[in-house]
Amino acid sequence: MKSAGGRLLTGLELDRAADRPLHQQLHEQLKGQILGGALPSGTRLPSTRTLVSELGVSRITIVTAFEQLTAEGFLRSRAGDGTYVDSLWSDRAPARPLPRPPLSERGAATSARGTSLFTDAPHSWAPSETESFVASQVAASAFPAAAWKRLLGRHAGRTDQSLIGYGDPHGLRALREAISEYVNDVRGLDCTPDQVVVTSGAQQAFNVLSVLLLDAGDTVLVEDPGHISGRLAFQSQGCPLHGVPVDDDGAVPPAVDDGARLACLTPARQHPLGVAMSPVRRAEWIAWAQRNGGWIVEDDCDSELRYRGKHLPTLFGLDPSRHVIMVGSFSKVLSPSIRLGYCILPEDLVEPFATASSVIGRPPAVLFQAAMADFLAEGQMHAHLRRSRKLYAARQEALLEALGQQLPYRLHAAPVDSGLHVMGWLHGAEDDVEVARGLAARGVYTYPLGEYRVTRRLPSALLIGFAGTAAEHMPQAVGRMAAAWDAWERSSARR
Ligand SMILES: Cc1ncc(COP(=O)(O)O)c(C=O)c1O
């Protein structure tokens, strides 16, 4: 009977024409045989001389491969007694390894939390066109590229530790100062730079807050319909979500206190419906937090983009009892690719938040923080906001006009006072998720309201973004939407 070592000689196939050196091929094939169980531990390998003559390779090829396998624990040589397969790998592997845990249907998660994260994640389109109806797409042409390039250039050559190192977990001091001045100005707060922690956007803030403030099993109140990625941050920590309805006054606090620990709200402009929370509701929510010892996460992400009417005071500013955390982001007011945002925190939460934030995600790129600090301090953000408001108001008007002219039989859309999208309420009974998919398959990207729901049944609607399309292109863009809709309808009628 052939020994395993003998079989080794017949199992090896070295390709002299391949780019990979012969010793590497030998190393890989021997390793494969050991890990696969073809060469059990204790197997004595043929001598170097035998291998040289059988395989027709040089001695140095054999010795190099053996030395590497020995260093990795696959082989062991006994002085004067040859080379053996070591037990390190082969004895540990079970004869029949169990299969890996199954992946979820959508492909990449094995835990229950990961599975729910994947299953509930929104369909995010990534249009390659610079213009689309995606609700979070900002105007590429309005991005202050020259100023941003100049500010990045100003700091890119710096080699001081504050720029080259990991950076302060709270964020660059200059940026914290600039942000506190900015939010005090545009949002009427009275916060100090010490209450600001810089984040890589609102999503990081939600993830950090969910770890810091909640245990698995704690109930979280979320708006229904509401921001999808925000609620997934809480859900993925194992927190059950309880959807609260939204009416003309904003999110409705629960009639009965049910022990929820945290409420995530968008008072400035309810996302996605667009209503501003009324003063009475604001008072009710603060009372809810105080009565329950609960937290309120106030997602204030694009409140600066208001076209009409005045801002109402933030929940953060209205709550002296410090139950509110305000989350801000530069994603919609400047660009989501910069990945910068901030949290305004009650004083006693600043250190825990900064620590958790740097463990979970590390501070954002310090170079970008430095550029943003100057962008704010030099007043460029105010100028950019003024230009953006004017531009987006005109784009909204053009969109509503084009929808009214070309799609009145499909949907109705009313003007909004703030934000980057209008709600297009469908007249028909179509499922909005199906419509959005049908349009996206034809290169027209919107978001369906159906994906924003938690449990509540809602009328069909599409979120139609206006910021990403030039006013003068709006008639053609809406024309493409109308044509795509007709084509989708024809193809679904045939099915
Ligand atoms: C309601 C809401 N909050 C926050 C954000 C911003 O998230 P981020 O700062 O992580 O880009 C968005 C972006 O789409 C949003 O719609």
Automatic annotation (TrEMBL):
Annotated transmembrane regions: none
Gene Ontology MF term list: transaminase activity
InterPro entries: Aminotransferase_I/II_large, HTH_trans_reg/aminotransferase, PyrdxlP-dep_Trfase, PyrdxlP-dep_Trfase_major, Tscrpt_reg_HTH_GntR, WH-like_DNA-bd_sf, WH_DNA-bd_sf
Key words of the record: Aminotransferase, DNA-binding, Pyridoxal phosphate, Transcription, Transcription regulation, Transferase
Domain HTH gntR-type: 20-88
PROSITE patterns: HTH_GNTR
Protein family (similarity comment): In the C-terminal section; belongs to the class-I pyridoxal-phosphate-dependent aminotransferase family.
Protein's UniProt name: PLP-dependent aminotransferase family protein
